[in-house]
Amino acid sequence: MKKKTLFTFLTAILMISVVLAGCGSTKEASNPKKQEEFVYAMSGLFKPFNYKEDGKLSGFDVEIGEALAEKMGMKPKSITFPFETIIQGLRDKKFDAILGSMTVTDERLKAVDFTNPYYKSGSRIFVSEDNNSIKSKEDLKGKKIGVTPATVYEKMAKTLTDQDKVMAYSQGDMTALMDLGTGRVDAVIVDDIFGKVALTQGGLKIKAVDKLLQVDNQAIAVNKENKELTEKINKTLEEIIADGTYEKISKKWFGYNLMDTKE
């Protein structure tokens, strides 16, 4: 009788163990490991690179971030952040990276790390199409120049005209370009690609002046403490360029591959 009781007891223990193991597996299966997010910030005021439409972020920068995240096995999350304080936001770890057409400068390199360039462009002067008095940067002295604050364009404008003639547009470059038609500003310094898109797709009556003021490398900014992410993005950027993903996104927004931009 004792042997039978012992056998029954051991059998019961075994059955309970199996049930508990099964419960553990079910619980684990219903709670899979959460996918790591890749949170990248931008102004949301730089169409077609990054802008809001019907409350949703869209544009070239947004889709490049999505492509990078997918290749890195991460979940993409694009957010907007004021451009004037976006570097400080990155340093405060409010997001993982700045993927918002940010120009690489020596000053910014002191605060953050940059990946390899994900496109090249340049600073360019734009004026209204009927303006024949401004033909080069030398003609900007004493003129009102519209720029987005905290950009390389603002810094450049301050060397080309009087300090009080530099008009900061926190609403973004498009607003500044639109004001060329109203006469509120005489010229606007902006990214060459952006200005040309505003001309061809935005229907603005503006024109580019002379040659590029300088060639700019646009790259993704990453916190200096996160060297691993910088290396990971660089590797993944090479992959999406090699497999044609980058070109597909670029042609969708601009009609050509931005990597083909010549200095």
Could you describe the 3D structure shown?
This protein has helices spanning 2-30, 60-72, 86-91, 106-109, 152-160, 173-182, 192-200, 227-242, 245-254; strands spanning 37-42, 45-46, 50-53, 56-58, 75-80, 97-103, 113-114, 119-128, 145-147, 166-168, 187-191, 206-222. By secondary structure, the chain is of the alpha/beta class. It folds into 2 domains: 37-120 and 217-257, Periplasmic binding protein-like II (D-Maltodextrin-Binding Protein, domain 2); 122-215, 3-Layer(aba) Sandwich (D-Maltodextrin-Binding Protein, domain 2), CATH 3.40.190.10. Strands 1, 5, 6, 7, 8, 9, 10, 11 and 12 form a 9-stranded mixed β-sheet that branches. A hairpin with a 3-residue loop joins strand 2 and strand 3. It is globular and about 60 Å long.
Order of secondary-structure elements = HEEEEHEHEHEEEHEHEHEHH
User: Helicity, in percent?
Assistant: 40-55%
Query: How would a crystallographer describe the biggest sheet?
Result: 9 strands, mixed
- Oligomer state of the chains in this structure: single chain
Number of domains: 2
How confident is the prediction overall: mean pLDDT? 89
Radius of gyration: 26 Å
Percent range for β-strand residues: 25-35%
CATH architecture label name of the largest domain: 3-Layer(aba) Sandwich
Low-confidence stretches: 25-30
Q: Superfamily at the CATH H level of the largest domain?
A: Periplasmic binding protein-like II
Global morphology: globular
Q: Per CATH, what is the topology of the largest domain? A: D-Maltodextrin-Binding Protein, domain 2
CATH class of the largest domain: Alpha Beta
Number of DSSP helical runs: 9
Structural class: alpha/beta
Spatial separation of the terminal alpha carbons = 93 Å
Number of strands: 12
